[in-house]
Structures are given as C-alpha cells and as structure tokens.
Amino acid sequence: MRADIIVMGWRGHGPVRRLLAGSVSRGVLRGASCAVLVVRRPIRELRHVVIGVDGSENAERALKFLAALEPAHGARATVFRAVDIMHAPTQGLAPAATRAIVATEVKRINEGRRAAARKDLSRAAKTLSSAGWKVDQAVTDGAPLRELLATVSNVGADLLVVGAKGVTGLRHLLLGSVAEGALNRSPVPVLVVR
What we know:
Elements: E1 5-9, H1 15-21, H2 24-31, E2 35-39, E3 48-52, H3 57-68, E4 76-83, H4 96-130, E5 134-141, H5 144-155, E6 159-163, H6 169-175, H7 178-185, E7 190-193
Helix pairs in contact: 3-4
C-alpha cells in the first residue's frame, strides 16, 4: 500500500515480558519501512509538538516529515537537543596549572558542543518556520532521553517526534535507544520516523 505512516495503539507489557517477547507495537516499529505513530492516549488537539534533533540523518528525516505536515492554526513545535557534556577527569595529584589547563580545555569543548547544538536547532527551526510552524528551541545538558521527556512535560506537548536509529540485534535488546525509551516512558503519543 506504500503507506506514509502506520498508526497503532500501545499496550505496555512488564519489562521481563517486553524483553523476552516484545510487543506488536515494537515489532511493527522495528519492521516498518515508514513512520509509526504509537498512541497511548488520544490526541484531542495537536497544539504542541516536541521533536528531538541530534544532527543525525534519522533526526533530519523526522524533521522533514514534520515539516511536510500542515500545522493547525497556532500549532507550535519545540525543537530539542541534549548536549553530551564532557567532564574533566580526576586529576587530584596533578599540579594546579595542569588542572587549570584541563578545565579550560573541557570548558572550550563543551561550549563548542553547545554552539553546534544551537546551530542545528536554528537550522531545524528555520525548516519548520518555513512550513508554517511557530517554533521554540530547547538545548539542555544531560541524558538525551531524560531531558527530552522533561521537555515534553515542561511545554505540555501533545506529541513527541523522534527519528529511528535502526539499532538491531542484542545491542538493541540490552541498550535500547531514545526512540525505544520514548515509547516506554513518554506520557504522550510518539511518532517514530524512519
């Protein structure tokens, strides 16, 4: 049928059953060649969407998918990016001058990462604005999934959009991904774009 999207409900299973058997939603998500919208609760009105942007091709596809949708009057999108912050290694026995140099270099690297994140978000915001969305930007430090879900709650989002990473095999079962974590923990429907 060459569908652009598959829409499914979500019936959460316990963690052991999920690990051993998975679920229909997960199976469809892993096997689908198109976007999958997994709905835990109905969307009465799509007023605010959060989209995770991380500079990857997957996130770019999700951004283009969202930009292709016509926003409702007054609809907002928050483009989100978590920055992986470097921490200075323990240097208890190093001379003070060495510790200061390392701290300065770590700070420079982190500022560069934040600047790159802001640049990615600015580009994403421009794409969505051109498509008629009102756009906000959110850059945070910290674990991507935790910060993404916090942003969903903080802005009162109605939908979360993420790109599929395509992780497979044992690594996928043990480590999961932001998309998988979002499916498990998001309080709002999740659109996973391939």
